[in-house]
Design goal:
- The chain is an alpha/beta fold.
- Helix 2 links the parallel strand 3 and strand 4.
- Helix 4 crosses helix 5 and helix 13 packs across helix 14.
- The radius of gyration is 28 Å and the shape is globular.
- The protein binds (2S,3S)-3-hydroxy-2-methylbutanoyl-COA (T1G).
- The site of (2S,3S)-3-hydroxy-2-methylbutanoyl-COA has 24 residues, from strand 5, helix 3 and helix 12.
């Protein structure tokens, strides 16, 4: 009986059970496909075996090819498991729990039958890492469920829950979550052992007729993804591969799929997306917080402050089944906050992205309470009051008074001193920052800020809490602006300074949208409100006489141009319309202020605009790493991807800079340092990286 470390064959009566055992997710790492083939051949050669089950050990079926193997020039397999499974002379039943993704689902599609536990999910998410299903998925899935449904799954890369997958005919059966999947699968296999002909997906063609009835199917999909898939190739190759399934015989279709796959495997887009996949997982590994650090159980949460952020945070918790008590300074403010939460959920229901009964369930988890004495029993509390220390310190003094021992006390501050906040309590070890990004129930980034006295347990628990509510948690040290906003600050200044020299908001925004941002930075500023940045600039200018003022931005705010909320900011807005319109009045103000500042005017090209904005932040990010506020460059990238909309197919700010090269970045910054002065002084770490030729992604804080 074949029994390799990674794949083993067991027999239960006349059923051969092929068990894939490659923790943690049964990826198809080297040795796994070979093991599957060996067990399949052994079972087919064994006269006692009438049928087979393919199942995963541990927590999942097969989560796909081993992504770490891509780009390593692996030899192409001569015999592919999904084809071999399909060609088996005895029926094979795929038994799925956890995930069947990518090559995992493709192997299941090679099987003759597929079943799953109700909690399982299936999908072909290859497009999310810049490639396409290269194991027959683009050819078999359209034959099984029709090209339209297959296109949607493959181009979106989404995970499909088991019940939906059964409705689509991907699964033949779904068993309850507490069922014994292995036993159920063996019984299924016994029932089908003698059934012939074996249902081979590659031979199913009737559903492909859908493409003949709707010839415009593929162009319609191309049009529907045009904005989201800008500058990307993988989504379009996915469409072409499914189209091939509808126009070519199966074998030729497989060949076409292989060609389209090979165009992508080593593309910049695929390399960047693979990097991003691992970067966000690396962020969960904190060098100074051992993985075995105990994590406190978080069953109940409190939120202090029912404003936009507090309400969004409460929703983030309720969305993941966590009961939340929310309070505010007055009953009126609390009522307004609850009304806003309800309206947000109702909007989702109206849009069809949330079922009404689910909205009711989530709302029922959010309990408005009168005050501090109602939240003391919660395991974790998040303060989300006005972004000024004088407002936050009394809150933490009260939390210190009421919260039970061991409760985590987190602040949603985006920049203020965590140590000052912790100092308002007698238990600074339980205090940290948990910076949500607005809107908190939508944005996936959670910036966890370590105070000088935050315990390892507090940080580990805060990170786990973020994951529990569907966030990507990234930890950093305590400084003005922490990692995200501090690395972003030079970008925010440089974009206005470009205007002093002759650029216009619409030119800068177009450069960044063409680069891949969903929205230009000036349009984002109008959305967020220009008055918010203004207060921060004033605070910093008072604290630091050398602070680089931004007179153009200040002038707009002083004229009452706060952005969308006043129908005028960097752009003009028609009443009720959020579309930004270039405003000649803004061009006049820019010229007027630049004249007062006596800045020589010139035409700036798009390349300079892009590099001025991004290099300024690359330089600051190096300084942040130098000061050990960030653990590594990839954490900066994760923050920029999830906090600032940096285009994911470019990997992240530092990954993108590595594409240019550390020396070129340094040389350009050194030139701007001569031209513009201190704000462009290269960080010492950047200089060291350039001198040693070390890429940004290897940048680490100096050993202390
Ligand atoms: N390859 C290598 N490592 C993987 C992996 C994979 N496919 N999937 C997960 N890991 C690692 C991950 O880096 C982490 O490592 C650990 O497993 C736990 O993962 C031919 C070409 C399955 C939904 O894209 O979506 O098949 O940090 O933290 O939150 O057509 O992992 O512990 O060192 O994410 O429970 C297609 C990718 C591949 C699925 C589980 N498949 N994985 O989420 O755990 S291409 C995918 C996921 C392909 C074929 C093509 C998720 C998950 P470490 P985790 P999780």
């Amino acid at each position: 009986m074949a029994d390799t470390k990674l794949v083993r064959l067991e027999k239960i009566g006349a059923i051969g059970v092929i068990v894939v055992d490659n923790p943690p997710v049964n990826a198809l790492s080297p040795g796994v496909p070979e093991g599957i083939l060996e067990c399949l051949d052994a079972a087919n050669a064994d006269p006692e075996v009438k049928a087979m089950v393919l199942i995963g050990a541990g927590r999942s079926f097969i989560a796909g090819a081993d992504i770490r193997q891509f780009g390593k020039g692996r030899p192409r397999p001569t015999r592919r498991t999904h084809d071999a499974l399909e060609a088996s002379t005895k029926p094979v039943v795929a038994a799925i729990h956890g995930y069947a993704l990518g090559g995992g689902l493709e192997n299941a599609l090679g099987c003759h039958y597929r079943m799953a536990v109700v909690s399982a999910k299936v999908g072909l998410p290859e497009v999310l890492i810049g490639i396409l299903p290269g194991g027959g998925g683009t050819q078999r899935l359209p034959r099984l469920i029709g090209p339209k449904a297959a296109l949607e799954m493959i181009v979106s890369g989404r995970h499909v829950p088991a019940e939906e997958a059964r409705g689509l005919a991907i699964l033949d059966a779904v068993v309850p979550a507490d069922a014994d999947l292995r036993a159920e699968a063996v019984r299924f296999a016994e029932r089908v052992a003698d059934k012939r002909p074996l249902p081979r997906v590659s031979e199913m063609t009737e559903k492909l007729a859908e493409a003949k009835r709707e010839p415009g199917l593929f162009d319609a999909m191309r049009k529907s993804i045009a904005r989201r898939a800008r500058n990307q190739k993988a989504p379009y190759n996915c469409i072409a591969a499914v189209e091939a399934a509808c126009t070519l015989p199966f074998i030729q279709g497989l060949q076409r799929e292989r060609e389209l796959f090979e165009e992508l495997e080593n593309s910049d887009e695929a390399r960047a997306l693979r990097y991003a996949f691992f970067a966000e997982r690396e962020a969960a590994k904190l060098p100074d917080i051992p993985a075995k650090t105990p994590v406190r159980a978080i069953a109940t949460v409190a939120v202090v402050g029912a404003g936009t952020m507090g309400g969004g945070i409460a929703m983030s918790c309720a969305d993941f089944g966590l009961p939340v008590k929310i309070m505010d300074a007055t009953p009126e403010a609390l009522a307004r906050g609850m009304e806003r939460v309800k309206r947000n959920y109702e909007t989702s229901v109206q849009r069809g992205s949330l079922a009404a009964d689910e909205m009711a369930r989530r709302l029922a988890l959010i309990e408005p309470v009168a005050g501090y004495d109602d939240i003391g029993g919660c395991d974790l509390v998040i303060e989300a009051v006005f972004e000024e220390l004088p407002a936050k310190l009394p809150v933490f003094a009260e939390l210190d008074r009421v919260m039970k021992p061991g409760a985590l006390m987190l602040s949603n501050t985006s920049a203020l001193d965590i140590d000052a906040i912790a100092g308002a309590t007698k238990r600074p070890q339980d205090v940290a920052g948990s910076h949500f990004f607005s809107p908190a129930n939508v944005m996936k980034l959670l910036e966890v800020v370590k105070g000088a006295e935050s315990s390892k347990e507090t940080i580990a628990t805060a990170m786990a809490f973020g994951k529990r509510i569907g966030k990507i948690s990234v930890a950093c040290g305590n400084c003005d602006g922490f990692l995200a906003n501090r690395s972003r600050a030079p970008f925010n200044s440089e974009m206005v300074i470009l205007l002093e020299e002759g650029a216009l908001p619409e030119q800068v925004d177009k450069v960044m949208v063409d680069f891949g941002y969903p929205m230009g930075p000036f349009a984002v500023g109008d959305l967020a409100g220009l008055d918010i940045g203004y207060a921060g600039r004033k605070r910093r200018a008072e604290a630091n006489p050398n602070y680089r003022k931004l007179p153009i931005a200040d002038r707009l705010v002083e004229m009452g141009r706060f952005g969308q909320k006043t129908n005028a900011g960097w752009y003009r807005y028609e009443k009720g319309d959020r579309a930004p319109h270039p405003d000649p009045e803004v061009a006049r103000i820019i010229k007027e202020v630049a004249g007062e500042m006596k800045v020589p005017q010139r035409t700036l090209d798009d390349g300079e605009i892009l590099r001025r904005l991004l290099f300024s932040s690359v330089n600051e990010a190096c300084q942040i790493i130098e000061e050990a506020i960030a653990y590594r460059a990839s954490d900066v990238d994760v923050m920029w991807l999830y906090g600032f909309g940096f285009p994911r197919y470019r990997g992240g700010l530092m990954f993108w800079a590595d594409g240019i090269g550390v020396r070129e970045v340094y040389n350009q910054i050194a030139l701007w340092h001569q031209q513009y002065g201190e704000r462009w002084a290269p960080s010492p770490l950047l200089r060291r990286l350039a001198e040693s030729g070390t890429p940004f992604r290897e940048a680490r804080p100096p050993a202390r």
